[in-house]
């Protein structure tokens, strides 16, 4: 990303919040990097340089500012100017790809060479993939130090460090002091406990239509797995055999307050990444609105709901089951079927939380089950079984490793999965901003009402050309309308 020095300097002089998270200011005389909104005195122009990412600033030898706290900047999703392989690599890194496997495996999943991927990261982000992953760990650790009372050992593991020694070494190198010395409060430490309870804030770029997000999730909440109240969303989760729960509600400022209860602290980065995807916290609604400004229908819808987001999915397999169950029936009917599936094949929670009593079934359990007895057509039961078998055979089936066309084609190769189902999975799970299920009757009827004319799926698809590359957001606005 090319950053014009004079333009960036003008932004930091007035502390323009529109640029918060879009670039970082590195101060040569102090060795720190800051957000554009940092309240400290603006340094001289000759003493600063600008980086598109925190990872680039950190790899260049600068350390995060303790005053403006770069870890609290709203994190934006990959920009349109990035190569497809870099955008998808960033998504996979956020979900922990480099923690589980090395660079070779990441490059293979993306279908590119390791050298090419490193070169693209260096060119477009100014940092290597490993540096991006390490910066994420450092900034999460710094957030946990400031926002929680966790002991430093628990901060280390909860932020993704493999050892306390490595955690201490990196903080000494960056800040010249022990991690614990960054915590200014003298209140006693509070361990996460047996349930691993951690509370922290997840920032976003305003505006954010929390009411619409909660309404979407409320209509689709699966009994036993999800709970939606007037101002909060909660659900069960199971990762690597460990069970837990998460709860989100509005927090102070432009943030959601998350309470994570999970016994394995090392899973926190992956849980945060999933929550950010479910609640679409990395999108920039102002930039998306600008793309739609020439379309009168979209302009009117955005003016009515300016902070609307595209709800994501907690888990790819769970979303695929929802999508198949929802084929050609109402949302309410699909939820009832999902509840029966969970009651019959979901594992019970060892420590239930009110009506949160079960976790969603695993692919292995669904693949081995007789599903027609749950009250659905045999053809749909066969499709559920086929998707489950495919998920068992390929653990990366629902990862964002391929482009939209390739992902849809791969999903459609599964027996019973059509274009609508594949596009819906791409939209909510793969986070494809241009996915568009043009055969969806809800989209067709919404546009017919708005434009007072009839549409076929083919005509809707042609009409949606004007909404590229954000057709998923256009679909969400139509669904909401």
TrEMBL record:
The EC number(s) this enzyme carries: 3.2.2.21
Catalysed reaction, written as an equation: Hydrolysis of alkylated DNA, releasing 3-methyladenine, 3-methylguanine, 7-methylguanine and 7-methyladenine
Entry's Gene Ontology cellular component terms: cytoplasm; protein-DNA complex
Occurrences of domain HTH araC/xylS-type (ranges): 87-185
GO biological process: base-excision repair, AP site formation; DNA alkylation repair; methylation
Coiled-coil regions listed: none
Name of this chain's protein: DNA-3-methyladenine glycosylase II
Organism: Achromobacter veterisilvae
């Amino acid at each position: 990303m090319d950053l014009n020095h004079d333009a960036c300097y003008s932004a930091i002089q007035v502390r323009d919040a529109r640029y918060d998270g879009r670039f970082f200011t590195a101060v040569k005389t102090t060795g720190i990097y800051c957000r554009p909104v940092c309240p400290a005195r603006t340094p001289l122009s000759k003493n600063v340089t600008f980086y598109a990412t925190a990872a680039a600033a950190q790899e260049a030898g600068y350390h995060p500012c303790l005053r403006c706290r770069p870890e609290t900047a709203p994190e934006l999703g990959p920009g349109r100017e990035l190569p497809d392989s870099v955008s998808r690599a960033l998504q996979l890194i956020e979900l922990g790809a480099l923690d589980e496997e090395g660079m070779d495996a990441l490059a293979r999943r993306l279908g590119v060479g390791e050298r090419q991927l490193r070169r693209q990261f260096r060119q477009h982000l100014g940092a290597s993939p490993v540096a991006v992953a390490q910066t994420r760990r450092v900034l999460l650790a710094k957030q946990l130090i400031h926002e929680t009372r966790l002991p430093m050992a628990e901060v280390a593991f909860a932020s993704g460090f493999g050892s306390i020694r490595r955690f201490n070494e990196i903080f000494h190198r960056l800040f010249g002091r022990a991690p614990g010395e960054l915590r200014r409060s003298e209140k006693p430490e509070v361990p996460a406990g047996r349930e691993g309870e951690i509370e922290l804030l997840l920032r976003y770029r305003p505006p954010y239509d929390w009411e619409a997000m909660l309404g979407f999730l409320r209509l689709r909440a699966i009994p036993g797995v999800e709970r939606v109240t007037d101002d909060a969303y909660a659900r069960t989760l199971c990762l690597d055999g460990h069970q837990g729960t998460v709860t989100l509600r509005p927090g102070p400022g432009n943030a959601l307050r998350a309470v994570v209860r999970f016994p394995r602290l090392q899973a926190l980065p992956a849980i945060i990444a999933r929550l950010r995807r479910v609640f679409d916290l990395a999108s920039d609604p102002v930039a998306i609105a600008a793309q739609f400004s020439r379309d009168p229908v979209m302009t009117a819808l955005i003016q009515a709901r300016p902070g609307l987001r595209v709800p994501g999915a907690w888990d790819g397999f769970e979303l695929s089951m929802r999508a198949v169950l929802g084929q050609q029936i109402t949302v309410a009917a699909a939820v009832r079927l999902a509840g029966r599936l969970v009651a019959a094949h979901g594992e019970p929670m060892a420590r239930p939380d009110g009506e949160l009593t079960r976790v969603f079934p695993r692919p292995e359990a669904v693949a081995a089950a007789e599903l027609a007895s749950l009250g659905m057509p045999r053809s749909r039961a066969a499709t559920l079984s086929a998707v489950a078998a495919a998920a068992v055979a390929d653990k990366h089936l629902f990862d964002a490793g391929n482009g939209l066309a390739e992902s849809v084609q791969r999903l459609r190769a599964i027996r019973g999965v059509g274009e609508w189902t594949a596009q819906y999975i791409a939209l909510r799970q793969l986070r494809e901003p241009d996915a568009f299920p043009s055969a969806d009757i809800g989209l067709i009827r919404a546009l017919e009402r708005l434009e007072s004319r009839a549409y076929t799926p083919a005509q809707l698809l042609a009409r949606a050309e004007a909404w590229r590359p954000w057709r998923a957001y256009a679909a969400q606005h139509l669904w909401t309308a």
